[in-house]
């Protein structure tokens, strides 16, 4: 993939690999145990949505949560990547939301089922424009924030991550090959909560980028 294609990673159709429970305060607020290894799940490329289009609440959920996260855009393919060279595989970053149907996720957890319906629906991955690597020289030291209808809900530093970005890249690449254009969502800080139709979400990486999304609702066409 050329650099310009990486810069439009959301159109490329590669994997979206998500890390859960990577911030202790968020694990606590959902009464989850602290992980001893990264918790991984996937979203399909159809989850992408860009500013100008709405986030759609799935017709089967009444409790859609926002999770603001730092996304890492992969620039070079690799398997079994050592932590020491992991950052060589990073092309850049993106501000991301891991939209989560929390009611459905709770049901899946109770039944021991995968989280696909809760995490992988269309528009479950709003993303900003591509941020070249040079614009975030220290990805372990950026501040993420999210507001709903102008009220601050989430604010946290990536310094609070349990597993670092080099560790996550190395860990994931021992499970599945990382490819150019893949996106890794690195987990959310505390403060997740519900959004409803007509709400406006604003999110940002302090001093780097921000983005705005409206919330709509997907009709049940069955
Ligand atoms: C419990 C979750 O939904 C985990 C997750 O996605 C996170 O960011 O943490
Ligand atoms: Mg998440």
From TrEMBL:
Keyword set, alphabetical order: Metal-binding
Assigned GO CC terms: mitochondrion
Coiled coil residues, start to end: none
Reactions this protein catalyses: acetylpyruvate + H2O = acetate + pyruvate + H(+); a 3-acylpyruvate + H2O = a carboxylate + pyruvate + H(+); oxaloacetate = enol-oxaloacetate; oxaloacetate + H(+) = pyruvate + CO2
Biological-process GO terms, alphabetical: carboxylic acid metabolic process
Keyword Metal-binding belongs to the record: yes
InterPro entries: Fumarylacetoacetase-like_C, Fumarylacetoacetase_C_sf
Residue ranges annotated for the Fumarylacetoacetase-like C-terminal domain, each copy included: 15-214
Enzyme nomenclature, EC number: 3.7.1.5, 4.1.1.112, 5.3.2.2
Molecular function terms, GO-annotated: acetylpyruvate hydrolase activity; acylpyruvate hydrolase activity; metal ion binding; oxaloacetate decarboxylase activity; oxaloacetate tautomerase activity
NCBIfam families according to UniProt: PRK10691.1
Family as reported in the entry's similarity comment: Belongs to the FAH family.
Protein name (record): Oxaloacetate tautomerase FAHD1, mitochondrial
Organism: Hemibagrus guttatus
């Amino acid at each position: 993939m050329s650099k310009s294609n990486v810069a439009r990673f959301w159109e490329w159709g590669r994997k979206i690999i998500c890390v859960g429970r990577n911030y202790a305060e968020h694990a606590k607020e959902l009464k989850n145990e602290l992980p001893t290894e990264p918790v991984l799940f996937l979203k399909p490329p159809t989850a992408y949505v860009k500013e100008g289009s709405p986030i759609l609440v799935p017709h089967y959920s009444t409790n859609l949560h926002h999770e603001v996260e730092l996304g890492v855009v992969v620039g070079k393919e690799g398997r079994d990547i050592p932590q020491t060279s992991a950052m060589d595989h990073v092309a850049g970053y993106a501000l991301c939301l891991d939209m989560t149907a929390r009611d459905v996720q709770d049901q899946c957890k109770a039944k021991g089922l995968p989280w696909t319906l809760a995490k992988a629906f269309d528009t479950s991955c709003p993303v900003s424009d591509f941020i070249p690597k040079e614009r975030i020289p220290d990805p372990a030291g950026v501040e993420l924030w999210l507001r709903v209808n102008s009220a601050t809900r989430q604010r946290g530093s990536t310094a609070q991550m349990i597993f670092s970005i080099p560790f996550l890249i190395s860990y994931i690449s021992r499970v599945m090959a990382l490819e150019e254009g893949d996106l890794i969502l690195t987990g959310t800080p505390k403060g997740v909560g519900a959004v409803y139709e007509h709400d406006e979400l604003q999110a940002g990486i302090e001093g780097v980028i921000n983005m705005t999304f409206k919330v709509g609702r997907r009709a049940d066409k069955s």
